[in-house]
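Aim 2 progress update. The chain analyzed this quarter is reproduced below.
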Amino acid sequence: ILGGIVRENAMRMNQAGKTMLRVALGALALLMVPLVASRVIEGWNWIAGSFVFVYVLFFATGMTYALIARRMGAWSYKAGVGLALAAGFALGWSTMVQTADSGHPERLWYLSALAVGIVGVLLARLRARGLALTLFAMAATLALIAVILPSGAPPEMARRMAIGHGVYVALFTAAGLLFRRAGLEESR
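Predicted structure tokens:
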């Protein structure tokens, strides 16, 4: 009996180690994009700490997906987690870059959509129906911000911003629909 327990725990540890290694290597591969860009794009002057910070963000996002998605069997739930994390990461990243580049702190309002997501995830306790409502609330938050936050941008830039807002709203809505489908599959 003891030998079986030891083997089972070793298999779990081995699987966890493999998952961490895959995520760590994936994060490293993603880190190559900003590393190469910093060598090619003029004015991209990151310090070493910036690369470490970005690597930690990539790794944390990947591990979050791995830990949440592996517990669920429904493909729609896994796809919803992946899409929500990717869209949330992209929104956070683009908000921070745009705020740093423009010097307009009002753009930090976009992070309120991520705050809605964090609170919603905690309240939903990773249940699909609650996550669907959370993603719909995030999409609505972004749509509201896009309407009320004055851009003062030239027409061409304002058009690109509207397209960007629409893409994020669509991504969060799509993730919400995937969670809704997973919730319907759970109730059967």
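The mean pLDDT is 86. The CA atoms of residues 9 and 15 lie 10 Å apart. These observations will guide the mutagenesis experiments scheduled for the next reporting period.
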